[in-house]
Every structure is written in C-alpha cells, then in structure tokens.
Amino acid sequence: LIVGAGRTGRSLLRELRETPGERIVGFIDDAPSLRGRRLNGVKVVSNLTGIEAALARFDPAIVFVTIPAAPHDRLDGVVRACEARGIDCRFVRRDVDLDPHVILASPRR
C-alpha cells in the first residue's frame, strides 16, 4: 500500500513492479480528484482518514509513505494505524532538485 499518489508514489510503484514477488494493492491519497481513480493501473482506495479501514481490507505487508512533508499529526496517524496491526511502515523520500548546469558543467581550472 502506498500513501501518496504523487510523483514519488507513482515512481515507487514503477520500481516495485519490477521487483519479483511485489504487488501493490492501492494508493492512499487525500486529493479528492484522485479518489477512486486508477493511476498506472492501481486504484486510489482511500484518503488518510480511512487508513485503518484500508489496512483492514487489504492487509498489506508494508505501507510506504511517500509524503514525508505532510503534517505530523497525519503521518502519526498512519504510523499508529500500522503499529496497531503489526504492519511495517516505511518512509520514502526522494529529493531531486539538481541544477543540470552544475551537474554537467566542466570543472573550472
């Protein structure tokens, strides 16, 4: 189960699909426009308020949280819900904000 259907969540989905034996059961996301939609073939099954029901319904082995900048009380609710069911909860953070001119520039002598 992936919490956060933004760019990082969808990127993680693509990576996990390439890992043998992994199956993504759904996304959790608070954006009303995404509720019930499929993103890359995976349904947005709930918002953060419904995390406990989603955990009970899908019983995932791992919950990946891809929105570490979300308010702490919201993230604490995800962590507590996972702990209550004995589900591993992992935070995934990917910051890519690199200036290509800096990365690709030849060193000055």
How would you summarize the topology of this molecule?
Blueprint: E1 2-3, H1 7-17, E2 27-28, E3 38-39, E4 42-46, H2 51-58, E5 62-65, H3 72-85, E6 88-91, H4 100-104
Parallel strand pairs: 1-2, 1-5, 2-4, 5-6
Antiparallel strand pairs: 3-4
Helix pairs in contact: 2-3
The low-pLDDT segments are: none
Quick check: average pLDDT? 86
Strand order of the largest sheet: 3-4-2-1-5-6
Oligomer: single chain
Number of helices: 4
Number of strands: 6
| Percent of residues in helices | 25-40%
Question: What features would you describe in this structure?
Answer:
It is a single chain. With 109 residues, the chain is of the alpha/beta class. It is 35% helix and 17% strand. It has a 6-stranded mixed beta sheet, sandwiched between helices. It is globular, with a radius of gyration of 16 Å. The termini are far apart. The model has no long low-confidence stretch (mean pLDDT 86).
In a few lines, what is going on in this structure?
The chain contains 4 helices and 6 strands.
What tags apply to this protein structure?
single chain, 109 residues, six-stranded mixed beta sheet, alpha/beta, 35% helix, 17% strand
